[in-house]
Amino acid sequence: MWWLIVIGIFVLIVACIFFVGRIEDSYSPKKWEQTTAKVVKKNHAYVNDVAAIWGQSTQRDEYQIKYSVNGQTYKRYLPNNTGFRPAGSVRILYNKKHPGRFVVIHGTVHKRKDGKMVIRND
């Protein structure tokens, strides 16, 4: 019976190594590219919250950004808590394989010696 425990621990260790490697590789320069998106406009969104039980909704502002990759234009939305303003710009990383996927850069992008990118809040 002890061998089942040993096999279980072995499988758990292998799974952890596999998933940690995938997470660390998720922002590799092979997969992500940096660009600048334009903040196009501010929208008002109405979201049902806890108070919606009483027929109320909350207004939340969001910003539309626009960026182009290989001649294709992408429009996405950022929540209001980002602090951006219309007619401004924001630095993003987009996924080269799926350019519609992006992350906002809130710091400085540094390349490590192994070539991977790290975002630091300097």
Tell me what the structure shows.
It is built from 1 helix and 7 strands, in the order H-E-E-E-E-E-E-E. The chain has one domain. The mean pLDDT is 75. With 122 residues, it is an alpha+beta fold. The strands form 2 sheets. The protein has a 5-stranded antiparallel β-sheet, with no helix packed on it.
SSE blueprint:
Blueprint: H1 2-24, E1 32-48, E2 57-69, E3 72-79, E4 89-95, E5 102-104, E6 108-111, E7 117-120
Antiparallel strand pairs: 1-2, 1-4, 2-3, 4-5, 6-7
Structure described in brief:
The chain is an alpha+beta fold and 122 residues long.
What is the chain-wise order of helices and strands?
HEEEEEEE
Distance between the termini: 53 Å
| Mean model confidence by pLDDT | 75
If you compute it from the alpha carbons, what radius of gyration comes out, rounded to the nearest whole angstrom?
A: 21 Å
Got a strand count?
7
| Uncertain stretches of 5 or more adjacent residues | none
- Share in helix: 10-25%
Major beta sheet, strand line-up: 3-2-1-4-5
Number of helices: 1
List keywords for this structure.
122 residues
